[in-house]
Amino acid sequence: MSLATQLPALQVAVPLLTAPLLVLLRGPGLAWAAACAASVMAFVIAISLTASVMTTGAISYAMGGWPGPYGIVLEIDALGTLVLLLVTGASTAALLSGRASLGLDIDAGRQHLFYAAWLIVLAGLSGIAITGDAFNVFVFMEISSLATYILIAAGPDRRALTATFKYLIMGTIGATFYLIGVGLVYMMTGTLNFADMESRIADVSDQRPILVAAGFISVGLALKAAVFPLHLWLPGAYTYAPHVVTAFLAACSTKVAIYVLLRFDFFLFQDNLVGHTMQFAVFLVPLAILGILVGSAVAMVESNLKRLLAFSSVAQIGYILLGASFANEAGLTAAVAHMFNHALAKGALFLAVAAIAMRVNGLRLQDIAGIGRRMPLTTAALAVAGASLVGVPGTAGFVSKWLLLQAAFAQGALGIAAVVVVIASSLAAVFYVWRIVECAYFGNAQAPGDAAAVVTEAPLPMLLGLWLVVIANVYFGLAPELPVSLAESAAADLLRHVP
Amino acid sequence: MELFGLFNYWVFALLLMVGFYAVISRPNLIKKLLGLSIFQAAVFLLYITMDKVEGGTAPIIQKGVDDAIYSNPLPQVLILTAIVVGISTLALGLALVVRIYEAYGTIEEDEIQQQDLNR
């Protein structure tokens, strides 16, 4: 029994068991250090799991030695490791760089509780990415959601509370819909294990409950993933959460829900509902396109920096779904790669926003006017990450957008329409990113003199973390082998039931 | 008898919609949470109904009894977990309502929105 074989269990256990320990560590510095240690460890485990999945293929781990389908099995495949890398990486980068910013947002006496909740979110989200059990997904989803509500409600503005309440209501409805769907599938197949379901569902695919289950699961997860028009919780939650929390959540929480959606739709329902590919596309394409257009349009006119980026997230989720709705290898590769690249770009942008928020009052565009001269390094990072969001060649965002456009071109008439939408939305992204950059570099500070003079560069750990993510954006733009190869094998995996 | 055979499922659907309607139509945050609880309770009923086997008994193996029909215990275990999740959600939601009341002095959604707009 070497430790290496236990890595899948440790992936969840390390953050989950560190969380209660944090409650005992009262000092904020100590709690932060312990949370960082757990998060770094989770990231290292995720990297080593990715390495072994890439060399030897999917890993299956029977929890507690109980074999599937009776016990809970952890199944780690290419798509799962990609999501795992996102979750643990985002948490690590945000925690390591965010201490000073969190110190401003949260009372010193409550920080240990905050970090405990953070680790529970980490455990829940990584649990979803690796579990092979449908009900276990629900449990992990609720573990992470409940802790997420705590993180968001910790925001300094009182509107954080109402935003959290909205998220709590909508998130719970989403999770309950998912639960109903899983119950209906269980009713028909008598199993909760994904692999087992996959083999048994073919016998009952003509039964109506399966169709109803597909509807409940898709809508429930779409709520969790903030698919347009179910995105209403997202802008408020992202805007009023503590800035570092936004960086963490924006990078990974919606992607995890999309991951579960893809798993269900392609592994279970793909082969077993009459005309499922069509239904899936008919359901998702209009929502994806509307999400892209509406999200981009609102982002163009929005003046609060965080809200602007949140609406851009709504549009980016549309890109991911658009790729997935083509239901072919090129489209899914683009979708999965975009999950990775968008997380990099958005994570970096929100970290930069967190750095700026430490030095200026308010995050409206006029508040950051002229910040480029006071905080050159942070603003440069913001600009590069913005370029990645737009999809400028040489950054990560370009790679997946290019893949998406290629996939769309192969789709005929509908594909051309999709290409037009993607290009229009990219132009919108150029516009709103330029608005930020223009304001930051060329805007004139409204209150010159003493107020602007005290604005200095963000603290060093923040800058280091921020630039690390920005460099990752450029690195994966120039050498995209890792995400693209993971995305390709994930796409091949997802499409194993497509004739 | 078809209709009566599906009685529990009708109640499930009815409860689900009653809860959902309360969530979307009531401006009072506590009433919203009550609606959410009814919404979740409906799902408990769905799970408990599906495990019932006609004439089935508790799944305990006894000596000398080998022709017993057992009800499926798994959905009951699952729903035990879901009940715990529901309670946690309700507790967290109520805690949030307390803090919203401290911050705004009201728990009516329209008044809260009004206050945010006036700032």
Keywords:
heterodimer; A: 499 residues; mainly alpha; two-stranded antiparallel ribbon; 2% strand; B: 119 residues; Helix Hairpins; 73% helix
Strand order in the sheet with the most strands of chain A:
1-2
SSE topology string of chain A = HHEEHHHHHHHHHHHHHHHHHH
Counted beta strands of chain A: 2
Q: What are the segments of chain A in which pLDDT stays under 50 over at least 5 consecutive residues?
A: none
Low-confidence stretches of chain B: none
Walk me through what this model shows:
The complex is a heterodimer of chains A (499) and B (119). With 499 residues, chain A is mainly α. Chain A has 2 domains: 215 residues, no CATH class; 225 residues, no CATH class. In chain A, 76% of the residues lie in helices and 2% in strands. Chain A has 20 helices and 2 strands. Chain A has a two-stranded antiparallel sheet. In chain A, α1 packs antiparallel against α4. Chain A is globular. By secondary structure, chain B is mainly alpha-helical. Helix content of chain B is 73%, strand content 0%. Chain B contains 5 helices and no strands. The longest helix of chain B is centred in the C-terminal third of the chain and has 31 residues. Classes of the chains: A mainly alpha (499), B mainly alpha (119). At the A-B interface, α5 and α6 of A face α2, α3 and α4 of B.
Question: In a few lines, what is going on in this structure?
Answer:
Chain A is mainly alpha-helical and 499 residues long. Chain A has helices spanning 7-24, 28-56, 78-105, 111-130, 134-153, 159-189, 194-200, 208-224, 233-240, 243-269, 276-301, 305-325, 329-357, 371-374, 376-390, 396-409, 413-442, 450-453, 460-478, 481-494, and strands spanning 59-62, 73-76.
